[in-house]
Amino acid sequence: MNSTNCRAIKHKRFSLIELLVIVAIIGILASILLPVLGKARKKSRLAICTSNSKQISMAIYMYIEDQDDYFPFSSEHNNTSWDDRLGSMEYDGRSITAEQVDNKSKLTDASIYECPASEVELTNQNNQKRSYSLNYGKAHKPSQFRGIGTGSWSMKSNEVNEASQSIMITENNKPGNYLGNNNNDFTNNNFIKAFYDTPKYWTHDYGRLNLAMVDGSVRILSMQHTYLGLRDATASGNQINTMWDCQD
Question: Looking at the record's lineage, which domain of life comes first (predicted)?
Fold first, then answer.
């Protein structure tokens, strides 16, 4: 092979300036794409969380149809939570056993009960995370807690005042909120406001909650919005006439 051919097949080398330009372009593209990808991931997680709330709502309404219009409740004396009831009766797609109800660490397939955006670590890592709770209320009036139920008591769905404006399910990202636990299974703003300054509690923007209404709709609202301008939601636990008020 002659020298002319050798010169012809030599590869052109990049100069230092050209390499620096390429690196700079990659850096610019990364700075543009990474926020976009981050927003897309955030929207995807929110969509899954919203879907979870809707699926749980559907399971609750199947339960209601078979239980004389009553919402599911929890029983402290036999360690049964509202989600245990949905699972043991197969409304939520599970078929959990009495042994699993007794031993919560054996509960599995909790996908619809966990928001993918939750960063809270459970107190007991052997259990499955439950990112949602039902709206807590008391049967005995007068009471400022006016949700759909609690341990051993629940309302009838046809007794709810303004179903489209009444909260049924709320996000509740606490370390002790795990599947089958009859503590933290019901909550409301009075208990949530204690976590207002805890960033990990809020999975979809600070101070905002993924909420399922009694009519089955799901909305992302600020905690302050749920009080409808009546009181300061970060200071008051009084739910009367707010979106937490399901009772007449």
Answer: Bacteria
